[in-house]
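Justification of computing resources. Each target in the renewal requires a structure prediction run like the one illustrated here; the chain below, 81 residues long, is used simply to show the kind of job we budget for.
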Amino acid sequence: MTALYVLDVPENTTVAKVAGEDPEVTVGKVGPYFEITADGAIVVDRRATGCRHAVWYSCVAGVADGRIVQHDKDALRVDPA
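Resulting structure tokens:
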């Protein structure tokens, strides 16, 4: 199971919301973090989140059992390890 962790602050809530729109993705909470998990890849479209670049590039708090293969102005993609 691949996991992406995003700090639960107002600026990041749309990242978790957009990620959770994928039926293969589950969004939960672990302490002060959103835990976004999937058996496959996790892909979040930046434009859909409405995040400005500064927030977008600072939203990742951690990754477990996966690796970030894309984190640019278009999308954040975490593939399984």
